């Protein structure tokens, strides 16, 4: 009986096989379905936006990242492109000064040199005033080595700018840029002839600052200067400072190596007259040959706290009149030698507001008031400004 119960029924075998086949099919189907689901999910997990970091580093860089790298490379190539654009318009300016007589009676020639930029196909060249100052004659060496005689068109000593002109076909004309758009840290390029020997030397730096003021030997502050760390040396004066578009954004004018009261030597302190100022002065000089600066018709000295303490003067800042030009504005107003001017239109003179900078805010023909100290007297006087040519 047990054997019957345990022995398989021949009729039941087909049924058992059918059930087994269903079980096997369902199991295989589940495995296959699960495998397909895993593959689909695995493919979705490997989408580029969700790559694990270890896989990202092993896969090729996507196209958009390659284009970003190419953009950086294009910016770097902008430097030689800008140089190639402006270099033909950069010149060397040679100043032949009056001959000097030596201690033993001999006479020898004097020359100095600077740089400049051609700004017109008519041969107009902008440079610094101190490059052409006291010239007996001028020459210009073009980028290709051609030497041409040059004529002085006009100059602005207080802006340290001058225009000279040469005849002939110009190898290039520099384009003006807008210095008001400069940003701190922007790449800039200085081009010129340092020491007069290394023509069309290129140095690269950044805009370190804008709106700087530097005091000159004429007790005047050059204002609105661009500060750069691009290497500028003697002979670079008058050369262009350009942006990556090859446009002039400044005219290199001076360097600072250290303070008068310190032995510390500074590097990378170069300054340029902004292009917007340079362009306005250049157009005025080309059109009229001079800049109409207001004048009092006096020779004067600038009073500082040190000078005031030394000579026991009654004010720390002011203008000491050392000479009155006969018939000039100050003479007509009744000013005398030894008078001290302390303010203009109620604006006291100081380091931040020096005399010349305040004076140049007005035009010849304007009437302004001055506070005057004459020994123990103090009074106000109105003066109609003349013109300094």
Can you give me a brief rundown of this structure?
With 389 residues, the protein is α+β, with helices and mostly antiparallel strands. It has helices at 2-6, 13-45, 53-56, 63-86, 129-132, 275-288, 305-311, 329-332, 355-359, and strands at residues 90-101, 107-118, 124-127, 137-141, 147-156, 161-165, 175-176, 187-192, 201-215, 221-228, 240-242, 247-255, 270-274, 293-295, 298-303, 318-324, 340-344, 347-348, 367-374, 377-384, 386-388. Among the domains are: 2-56; 178-279, Beta Barrel (Thrombin, subunit H), CATH 2.40.10.10; 293-388, PDZ domain (Pdz3 Domain).
Looking at this protein, list some descriptive labels.
Thrombin, subunit H, 389 residues, alpha+beta, globular
CATH class of the domain at 178-279: Mainly Beta
Q: Please give the alpha-carbon distance between the first and last residues.
A: 141 Å
Task: Report the portion of residues in β strands.
Answer: 35-45%
Total DSSP E strands: 21
Indicate the CATH topology of the domain at 178-279: Thrombin, subunit H
Shape: globular
Mean pLDDT: 81
Q: Helix segment count?
A: 9
Portion of residues within helices: 25-40%
Unreliable spans: 1-24, 27-73
> What would CATH call the architecture of the domain at 178-279?
Beta Barrel
The whole-angstrom Rg is 39 Å
Largest sheet: 6 strands, antiparallel, barrel
